[in-house]
Amino acid sequence: MLERLITDVAVVAVLGAGSYKVGALDGKGAFSAALLGLAVIELGGIYPFLALLAFVVLGVLATKYRYDEKRKKGVAQSNGGIRSWGNVIGNGLAVVLFLVLEKLSMMDTFWAATFSAIATVNGDTLASELGKVFGRKPRLITNFRPAKPGTNGAISLPGELFALLGCLVIALFALPLTAHKTQMLLAVVLGGFVGVNLDSLIGATLENRGITDNNSTNFLAALMGGLIGAGIFYILS
How far apart are CA 114 and CA 117, in angstroms? Predict the structure, then answer.
């Protein structure tokens, strides 16, 4: 038990330091990510941890992809794409909450919630970062009127496709944890995809009014995406 904990601490410390070195996170962000990663691997084991790691790697790649082009358009992630602790907590807190519920209940429903929450933030990051590049004609999710790339709540067909792909990638990590593989796959993909669009809806309404910020918007979307994924899995199984 102690040896495993030491190993886990070493792994998340190395990954946290790596995320700082490559410019994905600042110091506080890297420390927060290490703590979050430790909580995830201790509560849920290797598969949710790998799913979260995939989200981090894909998010960094998507953020850095054609970054100068996005910067010239005024839609690039601020601070050179380097994120801090608020973004880490906004994206990961719901995941930890669902893992606690899974640990207490030992129900596959909360595996669906956990991975749907990760799928939400992964799909949202890919949709946002790659949609800014490939989404030529974004529209506001509330009324489908044309919107500028990077506008809170703006969606595009390429962005939606990237979101769906991002959700599917995360869903694959959930399959080894359940005998209900088809139900889990559908629940995580659909829950995450709905969560991505709820993120856009919250951004177009609450965030634009100053009621939420980017981090709290991400948390609410991940929480709702997780709950929706859990509900879909419960109904299907």
Answer: 5
